[in-house]
């Protein structure tokens, strides 16, 4: 699993175990306390580390919370289920399962709400969560092209726009379904979403 870190600094080497404990403690603190009451001091106590350890790694609460949330989405993988439709359904079901976890729901809703008035936080969310998870769309399209399910894309700009659109459609639909409408993204719903998405992909390549 890949992980984002601030720029490296001189001094003692980082502890992966400490990082894991800090990010897990941050997510639990969000569930227990919410964004407004979460402090780095509380996270340090929960993680069993000194507060200075947090400040050596993260500049403040915004950066720490985004990285804690982003770590959850790094668990997503692209399964090879034999077809583009099945692959999409596999990823979407994983995504929905992550969003069903209290720490993911609390963390994502907190950073999105806070980002409405913080451009730097919005940019960190884009870089650490959105742009990183577009890897799944890129890999899925490439695999579908190798199978002959999608035509190759010679125009790089058009391909990038397609990746953005697919990601927005999938992520936006699942987040709205699970976090806004508070409805289950079960297999029947995911199958319907995939069918609509593939219909749009077919139309866009004609």
From TrEMBL:
Keyword Flavoprotein: no
Domain HTH tetR-type: 16-76
Any Pfam family matching the protein: TetR_C_11
InterPro entries: Homeodomain-like_sf, HTH-type_TetR-like_transc_reg, HTH_TetR, Tet_transcr_reg_TetR-rel_C_sf, TetR_C
Superkingdom: Bacteria
Name this protein carries in UniProt: AcrR family transcriptional regulator
Ranges of the DNA-binding region feature: 39-58
Classification of source organism: Bacteria, Bacillati, Actinomycetota, Actinomycetes, Kitasatosporales
Cytoplasm keyword on record: no
PANTHER family xref list: HTH-TYPE TRANSCRIPTIONAL REGULATOR RUTR, TRANSCRIPTIONAL REGULATORY PROTEIN (PROBABLY TETR-FAMILY)-RELATED
Keyword terms: DNA-binding, Transcription, Transcription regulation
